[in-house]
Amino acid sequence: MTGHPQEYVILGLLMKEDRHGYEIHRYFSSGLGHLWHAGISNIYALLKHLEITGEVIPKIEIQDNRPAKKIYSITPGGRETFLNWVHGPVEKIRDLRLEFLAKLFFMRELKLSGIGELIAKQIKVCQRQLEAVRQKDEVSRDELDRLVFQFKIYQIEAILMWLQVCDTYLNH
């Protein structure tokens, strides 16, 4: 089981085709560059962890006049881990900017079904969070706390509007 969101991104890249570490780094820099950055040493550390957990397997490719390189493939367990992640909503608002956008990216890139369901699940998570913050705001007597709650309320309301836009663009 993976834990770091960038591990899911690596699994998503390997869903399309087997790749070596530098190819994964290049894809992070180009295809996902506007969403996420990962240094080459970070990529190799994440690949090592995914190898240890059994979600990817390396194959050594011998090259003429060059060092051998590891080509990574996703395992059936890694595929299942990735698909569970990509179809699930993001629980923390702060993770929407990177993680949810990465999920949308991969759903389109890999032509996966369920984008409308993902957006609907995300809307429900945000609506639950909005209701929880509103309840805290109603009972708070401290002015600064109320300002913080109002900020969170406006932020979640804006995200809900943006999710409706996502649904319009990506699901129809």
If you had to describe this structure to a student in words, what would you say it looks like?
It is a single chain. The protein has a three-stranded antiparallel β-sheet. It is built from seven helices and three strands. The mean pLDDT is 91. 23% of the residues are buried. Helices cover 66% and strands 11% of the residues. It is mostly helical. Helix 2 crosses helix 3 (40-52). It has helices at residues 5-16, 21-30, 40-52, 76-86, 96-109, 115-139, 143-171; strands at residues 19-20, 56-63, 66-74. Strand 2 and strand 3 form a beta hairpin. The longest helix is centred in the C-terminal third of the chain and has 29 residues, at 143-171. The protein folds into two domains: 1-86, Arc Repressor Mutant, subunit A; 89-172.
Q: Tell how many strands the DSSP assignment holds.
A: 3
SSE pattern? HEHHEEHHHH
The overall pLDDT, averaged over residues, is 91
Query: Whole-Å distance between the termini?
Result: 33 Å
Here the CATH topology of the largest domain equals: Arc Repressor Mutant, subunit A
Shape: elongated
Spatial strand order of the main sheet: 1-3-2
State the CATH superfamily name of the largest domain. Answer: Winged helix-like DNA-binding domain superfamily/Winged helix DNA-binding domain
Low-confidence runs: none
Classification by helices and strands: mainly alpha
Total helical elements: 7
For the sheet with most strands, the description reads: 3 strands, antiparallel
Helix coverage percent of residues? 55-70%
CATH class of the largest domain: Mainly Alpha
Estimate what percentage of residues fall within beta strands: 5-15%
Rounded Rg: 19 Å
User: Can you tell me the CATH architecture of the largest domain?
Assistant: Orthogonal Bundle
Q: What is the total domain count?
A: 2
Oligomer: single chain
